[in-house]
């Protein structure tokens, strides 16, 4: 997750006007995964983290690089599907050489194939559009060819943020920026060939925090059942669906139809920005997101098409930038106690 004032442009462009029934704990479903970040000096051991995941029935996790300690801890736990990231700083060398890609795979993935359930490899994290965005496609092509040649059940994709959208409101007006059309659309067309999902990061929090006078908190946190935005025949009662569908509309305008989307990150910080970031608000958003995913009802544009989603993140990470970035975690790293009720 990377943010700057420029990247908040998309969120501040959404100007919207917006019941929450909470019966206590929410049970994790197979549709919910967790991001496992490692930017902290007080994090529990990976084996303890894996035990935590099992205790709350998490069956999917995402790590941002092929960390050997984490992957070794996952050995034998094939009931946990793992998404492994290729580091952004490795893309240039990998894009330049298919042999380099084979070497990366042999070092970072091959040793774990027999006893770790590696389901996805993601090439870069939020680098499209941008200076190194053009490096994503050749690495994806090389990895796709490699896993296909070996009949490995590993999907190859990339993770993108919503600043790929030049326009997003109303959702049906969704369209990509010119640089996104240059760098992202070829990636989407490659994914379409194998019906492999594109992974997207969606954060209604940033829309709300950038313009709280125009973005109602209840709309941003799935906390209203009434229609807030009417977009032709489609009615929206939460901002998440609106953002998701804007991306779907943008893909369709580029001739990419019915491509699956996985929500690789979403969440709400519990501290770091005053009254906008409290444990109560963060808990409300994340519980309601889990309920939304578990319902299987999809979005207005893709109804009855369940969403696959990962919450960000497992722990507060004290080596990230100060402020909200350190406070997206569901658990305190020191004692592994939940910051608010969720699972």
From TrEMBL:
Keywords: Glycosidase, Hydrolase. Pfam families: Glyco_hydro_17. It catalyses: Hydrolysis of (1->3)-beta-D-glucosidic linkages in (1->3)-beta-D-glucans. Its EC number is 3.2.1.39. It is an enzyme of class 3 (hydrolase). GO terms for biological process: carbohydrate metabolic process. GO terms for molecular function: glucan endo-1,3-beta-D-glucosidase activity. It comes from the Eukaryota. Belongs to the glycosyl hydrolase 17 family. This is glucan endo-1,3-beta-D-glucosidase. It comes from Arabidopsis thaliana x Arabidopsis arenosa.
């Amino acid at each position: 997750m990377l943010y700057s004032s420029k990247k908040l442009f998309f969120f501040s462009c959404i100007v919207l006007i917006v019941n929450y029934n909470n019966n206590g704990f929410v049970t994790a479903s197979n549709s919910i995964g967790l991001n496992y970040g490692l930017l902290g000096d007080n994090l529990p051991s990976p084996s303890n983290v894996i035990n935590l995941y099992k205790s709350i029935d998490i069956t999917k996790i995402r790590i941002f690089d092929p960390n050997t300690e984490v992957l070794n801890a996952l050995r034998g736990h094939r009931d946990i599907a793992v998404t492994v990231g290729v580091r952004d700083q490795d893309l240039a060398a990998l894009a330049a050489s298919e042999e380099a890609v084979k070497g990366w795979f042999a070092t970072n993935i091959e040793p774990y194939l027999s006893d770790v359930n590696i389901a996805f490899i993601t090439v870069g994290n939020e680098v499209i559009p941008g200076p190194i965005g053009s490096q994503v496609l050749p690495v994806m092509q090389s990895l796709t060819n490699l896993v296909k040649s070996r009949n490995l059940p590993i999907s190859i994709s990339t993770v993108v943020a919503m600043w790929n959208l030049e326009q997003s409101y109303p959702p049906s007006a969704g369209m990509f920026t010119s640089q996104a059309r240059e760098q992202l659309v070829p990636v989407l067309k490659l994914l379409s060939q194998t019906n492999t999902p594109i992974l997207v990061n969606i954060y209604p929090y940033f829309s709300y925090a950038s313009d709280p006078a125009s973005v109602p908190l209840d709309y941003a946190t799935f906390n209203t059942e009434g229609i807030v935005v009417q977009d032709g025949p489609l009615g929206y009662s939460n901002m998440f669906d609106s953002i998701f569908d804007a991306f779907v509309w943008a893909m369709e305008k580029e001739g990419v139809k019915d491509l699956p989307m996985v929500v690789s990150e979403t969440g709400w910080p519990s501290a770091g920005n005053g009254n906008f970031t409290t444990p109560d608000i963060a808990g409300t958003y994340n519980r309601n997101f889990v309920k939304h995913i578990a319902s299987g009802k999809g979005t207005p544009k893709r109804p009855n098409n369940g969403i696959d989603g990962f919450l960000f993140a497992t722990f507060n990470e004290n080596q990230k930038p100060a402020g909200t970035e350190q406070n997206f975690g569901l658990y305190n790293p020191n004692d592994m106690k939940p910051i608010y009720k969720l699972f």
